[in-house]
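Example 5.3 — Purine nucleoside phosphorylase
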Amino acid sequence: MIGIIGGSGVEEISGLAEASEKRIVDTEYGSVEVSLLTIGDKTVAFLPRHSLGHSCPPHKINFKANIMALKQIGVNQIIATNAVGSLDRDIGPGSILIPDDFLDFTVNRDRTFYDDRVIHIDMTEPFCNRLRGAILANSNSANKDLVDGGTIVCTEGPRFETPAEIKMFRIIGGTVVGMTTLPEAVLAREKEMCYASIAIVSNYSTSISKEKLGAEEIYEIMEVKKEELIKLMYNIIKDLPDEYDCDCHHALGDAEM
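Solution (predicted C-alpha cells):
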C-alpha cells in the first residue's frame, strides 16, 4: 500500500479516487484518522500531517503515531509533501525540490521507536532513492523542472528562523528549510518503509526574503501549486509498480548491536 503524508493542497487528491473510506487507526502512541483511497488499481492511505483543518502545529505533531498507523494498515512506501523556505536565490517560490539529504535541528521531538534497546539505523541514503526516481520520472507533470537533490534543514518551530540561523544553514550546506520532515523520515526508516519528500518552496527564508515572513505566504503558494501537485502525485501513484524490493525494507538487518 502507498502512503501519502501531506497537508493543505494535497487533501484534494481524494477527489480523484474511485472510492474512499475514513478509518481510525489505534496505535500504542495514539489514534490517527486515515483516508483509504482507490486510485486506479492502487490503494492509497492519505494522512493529513497536521490533522484535519491543519489544526496541529509542527512541534506538536504525533509523528510516531502517524508512522505506526500507516505501518499497521500495510503501508510500505510513503510520499510526503513539505512546505519549505529556500536558502538558495536560484530556487525561488513555486519551485519543487526532491531532497536527497537532511540536517536535523529539531529539539524536543520523540525521534525513535527504539528507546528500549540499542538500534542504529543507517542513513547513508536519508531518502529512498527508488521513490525519488519515481517522482523525478514524472517531472513532466510539473509546470517546470523538479529540482533533483538538495539538503532540507528541519527546525523545531513554530517560529521562523533568525537571520543568523539562516546564514549558518547556508554555510553548512542547507538548500531549503522546513519544520516537518523530521523525525518523520527517520521513523519511517526504522519501520522499514520507503520514504521520499516532495518539498514545495513557498518563500525565500528569513533575511533572503525582502519581506517579513508570515504563514499566509505558505497557504497562498500551496493554493497556487495545488493542481500541479495533485497531478504529480496522481501520476506517481499510477506508475509505481506493485512488485518491487528496496533496501529500505531491510533497514533493520544489521541495525541491532
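Remark. Helices lie at 63-72, 129-136, 163-171, 184-190, 215-239.
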